[in-house]
Each structure stands twice: as structure tokens, then as C-alpha cells.
Amino acid sequence: MRDKLSYRILCCFFSIAVGFAPLTSIGAVSQISKDHKRPVFAIKNVTVIPMTSADHLLPNATVIIRNERIVSLNGPIPTEAKIIDGKGKWLIPGLIDMHVHVPTDIYFGTKLPTQGASTFFDTQDVMTPYIANGVTTIFDLNSKAEHFGQRNDIAKGEVIGPRMALSALINGGDGSGRIVNTATDGRQAVRSAKAEGYEFIKVYSQLNVETYKAIIDEASKQGLKTVGHIPNAFQGKLEEAFVPHFGMVAHAEEFSKQTTNFTSQEAQRFAKLMVENGTWLSPTLTAVKRILSQARSLDELRASPLLKYVHPLLQSKWLTANNYNRNTTPEFVAHFEQLVNFHIQLVQACKKAGVPIVSGTDTGVSGVMAGFALHDEIELLVEAGLTTKEALNSATRLPAIWLGIDSEVGTIEVGKRADLILLSANPLSNLKNTREISGVFVNGQWLTKNILDKMLADLSKRNTASKEKYDWKKITGK
Length: 478
Fold this sequence. Notes:
By secondary structure, the chain is of the alpha/beta class. It is 36% helix and 18% strand. The protein has two domains: 36-93 and 413-465, Roll (Urease, subunit C, domain 1); 95-403, TIM Barrel. The chain has helices at residues 4-11, 123-132, 145-155, 183-196, 209-221, 253-256, 264-277, 285-296, 299-302, 312-320, 323-326, 330-353, 372-383, 388-393, 397-403, 449-465, 472-476; strands spanning 41-48, 58-66, 69-73, 82-85, 90-93, 95-100, 106-107, 110-111, 135-140, 163-171, 178-179, 200-203, 225-228, 246-249, 280-281, 420-423, 437-442, 445-448. Helix 4 (183-196) packs parallel to helix 5 (209-221), helix 7 (264-277) crosses helix 12 (330-353) and helix 8 (285-296) runs antiparallel to helix 12 (330-353). The two termini are 31 Å apart. 49% of the residues are buried.
């Protein structure tokens, strides 16, 4: 509670920062008294980039926010409104990261020891880098019961955090996750995941062909979208993996694993499979780039000024038990250099073919920094050939559509939730300007740059002060 109380004072109140589930049935109740009147905000003289399908800007606009929603664009300003000066600034929707792994005390299959009720990962500390970077929605692709707890903390107003979409991972063989090796068991795993409250299903690498197809079919029958890997069982018969309702491929690397022919023609073949099946792509370019860097050396990671915002246990893992580095070979480096180049070709082919591309980071991979990495990803998408508008779409409107929450977030329109970023520079002229954050609305709650900077500074101090306590090898034995 040490810093949560100070955040309440700084921010005046916590809004109902709901997770994904309440978006379809708004039922979460804030810890704030129902008698407490939430402020009305008016952002004046701001240039709005709505990110709607219509390609237009709203210059010198006034945006009115009441009860955590946008209620007016260029309407009259209520007398009770708190004024935010938007002159010379740009307003965009909050960003959506479509591939994260939020740490809990079961971390990548390793059960971390706890003492009593204490945990390693404080939920506010986990969420702060996302909010400070304007990431107001995250999609966790290997969710557990602990993630529902994190989402509930946000919903109750105990934590300032993004809304969370949760996916149950289903795998085969002797891998990790929910293990199923028959079609019958695969279908039951889907039904169980839905009953537990998961909104999405992630298929994984060691599933056999029959079970994979049954999972996707059952997920569709249960109203759940499917995302994930292309199982190894489809090696040499990739076309068979693209069955109806396979909603999204979670990495560009899933295609590069299926070939040794890293050519533009091969990229075009893969794009054709996706567009014909209605399958989307989350390339996670930044993850492969970070892996390549660590395979070469840990110097770049060690020198990163962002490392101080990473939990010290993860810092220890990344710097002392980094498999990308300690298992590296010249061949491994050369292979990942090929992948970086081929994935650019794949993005270009997908753009040309009309495959929808969304931004995901695979945060949780060593060296991929929560929140900050989404800005890296959209910049890499521009380097790969997307326009700045297309890259912004990949982290706003398109993810909201795929997640099924586009009636609530993803664009700036009357009636939408106030998930917004106020920028001090124009992101359409230079996408790096998405980092120039003057303030963030998280589900209608206004956080100024000063507040966000303080949250990050406090996080850095705590991480630095507790660094000596955390040694990955001593704690996990790995």
C-alpha cells in the first residue's frame, strides 16, 4: 500500500479501470464512494487524431470527458469542467499491446517461492511502465489465475493499470501450459478455459494436427477467438494450418520456422495464406531484434537506461541466466540476422496483400521492456514499410477490432471510453513523437506527465534499493 496511497492523492481518485471482461457488461464497482463526483474534463485547442477509418484530423478541437467517456467533440464546455490546455498538442487513442506476458509469481513455468502472503511482483509496479507509455490495453498470451487477480486489483481501483485481455494457452506433447494430445481433450480444454473466464485461446507449438484443428473449431463454437503459434506438426504442410477461425499468428517467426528459403517470394506465399484465411498477424519485430542483440552481446542490454524500470529479479535473470547469450554461436547470430531481414519482407508482403497487422511486443522476453517496447515495435513497422498512420492503426483501432472492444476503445469518438494520450509533438510527422507524452487518460482518469514521471522515478528507486535481494540463480536454482 506504500505507493498506492500516494497515487490516490496525486490523481484525486481512481476510475473504474476495468479489465477486458467488464467491457461487455460494465459491472465493476470502484472503491471510491458512489457519492464522490468524478471530475469533468475539457481538453481545449488540441489537434485530435481520431484514428477512425475516415482519414481526417480535428484541429483546435475541444474534447469533453464525463464519467470516464468522451461525451462531446467541439461541444460547449461545462462550467464545472477541469481545463487541460491542448494548444500545440496532439491527442491520440491509448495504445494497445497485442502480445505481452505479465509477470506473476508463476513466471514462465517457474514457481517462485513466496513467504506467507508476500509476492515478488507488486501489481502497481508491473503496470506502471505500461501506463507511463500510454499503453492502456494489453493482451496477455499465457494467462493464469494470478492475472485475474491483477485485473481485479485494477478494476477495484487499487492499481492504476491498463485493461487486460486474457488468453489461455493450450499445448501438446510434454510442453508447458494446458497439455492435450487428443481432439476430445482439446475441445474440453477450450470449454474449461471459457468456464474459467478466459476470453481467448492461444494454440502452441507442440500440438498435433488433429488436436490443433479441434481446438480452433471448438473455440469458434464457444465464441472465443484463437491466436498463437503454428505447431511444429505442420512442417512441410503449412497450408493445412490455415483452417477457418485461426484468428491471428502471434509472431512473424512462426513463418520463418517453416522455411529455409528467406526470399520475398516466400514472404508473399505466407501472406497469401493469411489473407485467404482471414488470419491477422502480430509480427513482434522488436522481440527478435532484442534476441539478436543479446546473442551478440549483453552490453546493449546492460547499458539500457530503461533497465531500472524492470523488476530486479528479471534484471538478474536477463543478465546472469540469459539463454540467448550463454547458448549463442556464430550460426545462431547469423540465423537471427536472417530472421530480422526476412520479417521485414514478410511485413511488406502482408501490407501489399492486405493482411491486417497489429502491434505486439512479446514483453516478457529478455530485453523487451514493458510499455517502452510498444513504441519500438511501431517504429520498426514503419522501418518495414508501413506508413505512420498504418503503424498507429496497428496499435489502436485494429487491435480494438480484433479484441472485439472497438465499440469502447481504439478511436476517439463520442461515446468511447477516455483512453487517450496527449502528445507534445505530432506523431504523424514523426512516429517517435508517440514518446513525447504530456499526459495520459486511463479509462477517464487523467495522469499528468509529472505524475507519470514520479511513478517511474519511484519504481526506479524501489528496484535499485532492492536489487541486492534478488538473484535469479539463488532463488530459482536455474
